[in-house]
Amino acid sequence: MFDRLLEKVGKNKVIVVVAALAILDVLVYIHLLARNPNITTYFLDVGQGDSALVRLEGTVDVLIDGGPPNNRVVRALGDVLPFIDRYIDVVLITHVQSDHIGGLVEVLRRYNVGVVLWNGVGAETAVFQELYRIIQERDIPFIVVGVGDTLCYRSSCFIVLAPSEMLKSASDINNTSVVVLLKNQDISFLFTGDISTRVERLLREQYYLSVDVLKVAHHGSRYSSSEAFLSAIRPKVAVISVGRNSYGHPTSETLKRLANVGAQVLRTDMHGTVRIVLDKQTLHISKGR
């Protein structure tokens, strides 16, 4: 199998190094056959929750959140991954609410996982306690990330923009979300968890962000995706991970603000799993339905 080595470099850098150790191993053989220079991001249709799978140049899988505990993330992964591929290199938990981690319990039972990254802010909930138990039982490295940490493979880097140490103690757990920017040369994806306009304002003040693809925060809640934030980052594509719900997500206010900045809006409740392929700095979008 592949040996995944996660190591800290300096104070704020996290680098994943992937090396083939057993040429005859069948999983290695499958990986070599599937090697692809493109980067493919799947915004998975998991219902009312968040989950996205990023395949970095066809060989390294990063799963961001796992949706609610309804087994839809497992089915969605089965649709997009080769049937023999039972390894996910990195699982990144933005925050520990059930609609983001509930599906990960079954993912960790069915897949081998190299490392789980999170913000270090736990919860006294049954779903988090069960997830933590499985992580410990399977001896998966469980690493806290913070502002400035980076996760790199070949020409792609995930850069952690939030939460700061101050935000990790926020009374609203949504504002503890890990926010990551995926950069590949001139193209960028921004994954925002469930942050509110408070964190959006801090991001505007601390970073100059120009974003090609935005994972819209908090399923299109009116308390996120402010006019000021969207005007600053100017996303070309905005993906809303959402399902049937009683919250009114996505709200008409959020949809209007996205339209006002010219973003192409895609919704998992309407379009199914959204697939975006980055090929030679060009985005190719396809929808599940």
Automatic annotation (TrEMBL):
SMART domains (UniProt xref): Lactamase_B
TM spans (from-to): 12-34
Name this polypeptide is given: Metallo-beta-lactamase domain-containing protein
Chain ranges of the Metallo-beta-lactamase domain: 48-244
Keywords of this entry: Membrane, Transmembrane, Transmembrane helix
Pfam entry (one): Lactamase_B
